[in-house]
């Protein structure tokens, strides 16, 4: 059944599992207003270099990228598109003709040089300039290198140009010896090693992306070098991965608004008939262990005054991801909660007194603050360091011994809660991975069993699919597998079947008369959980046979698991085909024997 009054926004990406893509999707999801019935559908393509020899990976990617054709045949109200620098690379694996399909409805493109489209891009210069000026003018460094990106990527090109210009403006000559191109992923260990070997005196390295910095970290470890100690390192995009690397990676990222937020804002304006043109998102440097840099100092004078604007600035500095989240009514306002207990701590310092009652109340507020997910919006190391700076500044003032003891206990409580929160999250992640491994084990066993009733038409494959641990998903299948050919245009059938629905982990099979639907309507079916604001669509295929589509709720794990699960489901359908074919051959053999007497 087709749902009503749903605005379907398509988000077209290359490589959904890249950290940049994860951040982009999350930021768009967070920006969906509570009063807007918007359903986000991610169509994740795959990038590969068409200049490399055609191999199994290229063949796989070509079939996988047929998922992008849904942008042409399905009903979308608008698109947010991030597929790189297509206009200057005519041989890109993502067909340029798709661009015309995206333009048929309101659209916003991210970081591209495609002409005559609304674009949201980073202001690459503001963050890079901040980093270079700091390294040259404050740290006094002069031997700076760059681990660059792809020659067909607009941001990669711009970041190199800006880096060179900033160096030259500071009187530092640039040489190609100080630069090397990469594929912008963590697989650039070899290239990073060459850059290090060519520049043994390098003092700092700018990585075009955080992912590239991860490759540099590996190359440095192989040579006994430590980021932040032997060579200062900073990346770009300020993804969560940057804070989780060891040592944590300093990175350039958005300042007050993310790319995803701005893109959705411009798209909604277009829905309302407002054309605001393209936009730049300001950037800044977020310092961590690989390059120590702090944007703010917490002076004793500011703390004594306890001005609200200062406390909110303190919060924005410590919990910098929070400003990018859309506030919903059911959420606790962590910024306001932070103000409540910090202002009371500062007031006690000013009065040189804190009562036991006030101390206990602040303890409760701190506990609630961390229980409601404060650590989701910061880096553990950054928060603890910021707390220590606050603590040091407060202890430097003239305070009573009793008040000072209580304040220090409160700061210790904050650090303890932060560490506990991180530990609990790690334990949950490990438990989840173990649970998923066991579910996949059960899936493989169920998929192996042939009870004699296997038939694509009777929905028995759903028994094994139910073991995969999907929470909120639907699976659509074509009545007959669509065969992909490199030499012929792919044409999907107009109709498709809703094979099964999974809600809150429970699987449901619809009656036959409810299964058939137009392919164009698959993203507006009301069987999709209304609690889910977003879904990712993955092609279900094996070799050149496309069986259908897995549409799964956008959760943190589906970015990395979705394609893998779709592959396993495609394998199940293929095995089922083989079983049917094998049984048909056996039956034909017996019929021939019977006919021959």
What is the structure about, briefly put?
This protein is an alpha/beta fold and 597 residues long.
Could you describe the 3D structure shown?
By secondary structure, the protein is of the alpha/beta class. It has three domains: 1-116 and 450-597, no CATH class; 122-286, Response regulator (Rossmann fold, 3-Layer(aba) Sandwich), CATH 3.40.50.2300; 300-427, no CATH class. It has helices spanning 19-31, 56-64, 70-73, 97-102, 124-138, 154-169, 189-198, 210-222, 240-244, 259-271, 300-305, 308-318, 334-351, 356-371, 380-395, 401-448, 462-465, 512-515, 558-595, and strands spanning 7-14, 38-45, 78-82, 107-110, 119-122, 144-147, 179-180, 204-207, 232-236, 250-254, 279-281, 283-286, 473-483, 495-503, 506-508, 516-518, 534-542, 545-553. The strands form two sheets. Strands 1, 2, 3, 4, 5, 11, 13, 14, 15, 16, 17 and 18 form a twelve-stranded mixed β-sheet that branches. A six-stranded mixed β-sheet has the order 7-6-8-9-10-12, sandwiched between helices. Helix 13 runs antiparallel to helix 14 (356-371). The model is unreliable at 85-94 (pLDDT under 50).
Biggest sheet features: 12 strands, mixed
How many alpha or pi helices?
A: 19
Structural class label:
alpha/beta
How many independent structural domains? Answer: 3
Radius of gyration: 27 Å
Helix content: 40-55%
Strand content: 15-25%
Intertermini distance: 53 Å
Mean pLDDT: 84
Number of strands: 18
- Spans of at least 5 consecutive residues with low confidence: 85-94
Which geometry do the CA atoms define? Answer: globular
């Amino acid at each position: 059944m087709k749902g009503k009054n749903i605005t379907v926004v398509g988000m077209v990406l290359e490589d959904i599992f890249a950290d940049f893509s994860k951040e982009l999707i999350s930021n768009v999801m967070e920006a969906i207003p509570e009063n807007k019935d918007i359903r986000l559908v991610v169509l994740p393509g795959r990038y590969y270099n068409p200049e490399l020899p055609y191999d199994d990976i290229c063949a796989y990617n070509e079939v996988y990228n047929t998922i992008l054709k849904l942008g042409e045949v399905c009903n979308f109200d608008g698109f947010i598109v991030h597929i790189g620098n297509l206009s200057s690379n005519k041989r890109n694996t993502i067909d340029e003709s798709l661009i015309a399909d995206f333009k048929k409805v309101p659209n916003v493109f991210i970081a591209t040089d495609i002409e005559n489209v609304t674009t949201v891009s980073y202001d690459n210069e503001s963050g890079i300039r901040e980093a270079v000026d700091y390294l040259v003018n404050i740290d006094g460094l002069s031997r700076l290198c760059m681990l660059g990106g792809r020659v067909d990527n607009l941001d990669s090109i711009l970041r190199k140009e800006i880096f060179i210009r900033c160096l030259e403006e500071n009187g530092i000559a640039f040489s190609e010896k100080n630069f090397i191109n990469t594929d912008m992923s963590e697989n650039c260990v070899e290239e990073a090693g060459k850059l290090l070997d060519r520049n043994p005196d390098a003092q700092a390295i700018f990585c075009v992306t955080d992912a590239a910095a991860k490759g540099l970290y590996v190359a440095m470890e192989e040579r006994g070098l430590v980021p932040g100690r032997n060579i200062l390192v900073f990346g770009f995009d300020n993804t969560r991965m940057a804070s989780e690397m060891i040592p944590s990676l300093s990175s350039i990222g958005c300042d007050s608004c993310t790319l995803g937020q701005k893109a959705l804002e411009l798209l909604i304006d277009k829905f309302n008939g407002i054309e605001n043109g393209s936009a730049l998102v300001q950037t800044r440097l977020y310092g961590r262990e690989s390059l120590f840099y702090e944007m703010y100092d917490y002076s004793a004078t500011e703390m004594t005054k306890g001005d609200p604007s200062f406390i909110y600035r303190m919060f924005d500095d410590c919990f910098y991801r929070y400003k990018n989240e859309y506030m919903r009514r059911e959420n606790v306002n962590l910024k306001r909660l932070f103000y409540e207990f910090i202002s009371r701590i500062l007031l006690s310092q000013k009065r040189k007194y804190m009562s036991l009652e006030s101390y206990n109340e602040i303890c409760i507020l701190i506990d609630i603050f961390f229980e409601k997910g404060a650590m989701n919006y910061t880096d553990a190391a950054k928060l603890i360091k910021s707390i220590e700076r606050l603590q040091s500044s407060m202890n430097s003032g003239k305070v009573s011994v009793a008040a000072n003891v209580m304040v220090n206990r409160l700061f210790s409580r904050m650090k303890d809660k932060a560490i506990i929160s991180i530990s609990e999250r790690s334990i949950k992640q490990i438990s989840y991975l173990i649970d998923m491994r066991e579910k996949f084990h059960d899936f493989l066993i169920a998929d192996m069993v042939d009870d004699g009733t296997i038939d694509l038409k009777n929905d028995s494959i759903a028994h094994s699919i139910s073991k995969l641990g999907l929470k909120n998903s639907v699976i659509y299948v074509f009545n007959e597998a669509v065969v992909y050919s490199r030499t012929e245009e792919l044409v999907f059938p107009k109709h498709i079947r809703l094979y099964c629905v999974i809600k809150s982990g429970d699987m449901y099979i619809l009656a036959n008369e409810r299964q058939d639907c137009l392919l164009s309507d698959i993203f507006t079916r009301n069987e999709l959980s209304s609690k889910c604001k977003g879904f990712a669509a993955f092609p279900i295929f094996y070799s050149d046979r496309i069986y259908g589509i897995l549409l799964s709720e956008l959760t943190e794990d589906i970015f990395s698991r979705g394609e893998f699960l779709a592959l396993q489901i495609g394998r199940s359908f293929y095995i089922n085909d083989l079983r049917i074919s094998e049984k048909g051959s056996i039956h034909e053999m017996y019929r021939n024997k019977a006919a021959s007497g």
